[in-house]
Design goal:
Helix content: under 10%
Number of strands: 25
Number of helices: 3
Largest sheet: 10 strands, mixed
Radius of gyration: 23 Å
Order of helices and strands: HEEEEEEEEEEEEEEEEEEEEEEEHHEE
């Protein structure tokens, strides 16, 4: 008996230590620098930056998975209220068979089909008024939508929480990229203030053609110590697309005098390597947040590299005050006149805020929540183009999650 109790206590202590420990590979060596001899040409003040960060403003988000329906397996309600994006809603229905996503969005919201990267691709694309409301109140989620899909199915979703206690919400890196078959960007969906729908006290209705469905149920988790549905909503989603695939001329910055360069909402930070400007960080502001990508050692002056040189380093993508959400390796190789680049995430993601409560909750989720980004790889090629350079880049899935 005592050895069982001792073993259980030891297991608890081990889990505690593992959850407390931070992976040291999440920390970049910000003192790392490139040797000056990686260049064979003098600096000319021009810098080529093949990286991009786009922020898509969104006010609220609700995502719910369910089972048992022959056509649909998940739905998502998005609410927008932004001068650039518009005001209104978008409703997604994810299909079981081909994993395509149907979009139903209001005319008052700016949507672009060719820029979407979801599941196995976009299915139906319908601009239509939506009968919905979506609020997050002190008592929790209050959302409802009624819709008739393109095949005549009547869909009704109603969720109203009546919570007496409100544990602080979590910050989650959404695993949107796990289901995308042919990505055109790295989805960095950093969901601030995300929560799970409580079972107790919640009014819940999901009917499709009059047939009722329920999402999966989760047992009490460290986050809230209460039974929940696998339906999650976010009061402050940060939606960003990293390094969208491109095939275009790459215009250089004509000067990088000083340690930083600002153009619109994009800020570049440089370090000096005997006159060569090397990119330390690119930061994009939007929707009240900042998404940043940092390199260690800094990304070299790509157009001036010595033939045959290879530069290896680490990168981190984060938001606001959280600097290492996605972390991985990068490489730069000069082959003749061409410069080839590669970036690949290598580390599991764990919450950087919320302490043991957040980490313990994530341990209940499938491994894809922590590991999906490790199956993404970005490659790019820069070639001379009439005194400038041409960028050709793509993302690929390496299999797995």
């Amino acid at each position: 008996m005592w050895w069982l109790i001792g073993g259980a206590l030891l297991a608890v202590a081990l889990v505690y230590v593992l959850l407390q420990r931070e992976n040291p590979r999440l920390r970049l060596d910000k003192q790392a620098r490139n040797a000056p001899d990686i260049y064979d040409q003098p600096a000319d003040g021009r810098v080529f930056v093949p990286f991009s960060i786009e922020i898509d403003p969104m006010k609220h988000m609700l995502i719910m998975d369910f089972a048992g329906h022959p056509v649909y397996q998940a739905m998502e309600l998005q609410r927008f209220d932004h001068p650039d994006k518009g005001t209104g809603a978008n409703f997604l229905l994810s299909r079981v068979g081909d994993n395509r996503a149907d979009f139903y969005f209001e005319p008052t919201v700016k949507m672009h089909r060719e820029r979407m990267s979801v599941g196995a691709g976009v299915g139906e694309w319908v601009e239509t008024p939506l009968d919905y409301h979506f609020e997050i109140t002190p008592a929790g989620l209050d959302a409802e939508i009624r819709l008739t899909d393109t095949e005549g199915r009547d869909i009704h979703l109603r969720i109203k929480e009546n919570r007496r206690d409100r544990r602080p919400p979590l910050t989650l890196l959404a695993p949107m990229g796990a289901g995308i078959k042919a990505p055109i960007f790295l989805p960095f969906f950093h969901l601030r203030r995300i929560d799970l729908v409580r079972q107790a006290g919640t009014e819940f209705t999901l009917t499709i053609d009059g047939q009722s469905y329920l999402p999966d149920k989760l047992p009490p988790v460290p986050h809230n110590l209460a039974g929940t549905y696998f339906a999650r909503y976010c009061a402050d989603p940060l939606i960003a697309m990293i390094n969208r695939a491109a095939d275009r001329p790459l215009t250089p910055l004509e000067t990088c005098r000083g340690s930083s360069y600002q153009e619109g909402d994009t800020r570049l930070t440089f370090s000096d390597n005997e006159g060569h400007c090397e990119l330390q960080q690119i930061a994009q502001q939007g929707d009240g947040h900042t998404v940043h990508m940092t390199f260690a050692p800094p990304m070299p002056d790509l157009a001036k590299l010595r033939p045959g040189i290879v530069v290896n380093g680490r990168f981190a993508i984060g938001s606001d005050d959280i600097h290492s959400v996605i972390v991985g390796d990068y490489s730069v190789r000069r082959e003749g006149e061409r410069v080839r680049l590669m970036m690949q995430p290598t580390e599991d993601w764990w919450p950087r805020t919320g302490g043991l409560r957040a980490k313990g909750t994530l341990a209940f989720f499938p491994p894809a929540f922590r590991q999906w980004m490790q199956h993404y790889r970005w490659t790019a090629e820069l070639t001379p183009d009439d005194g400038a350079m041409h960028l050709s880049s793509r993302w690929e899935r390496l299999g797995g999650a």
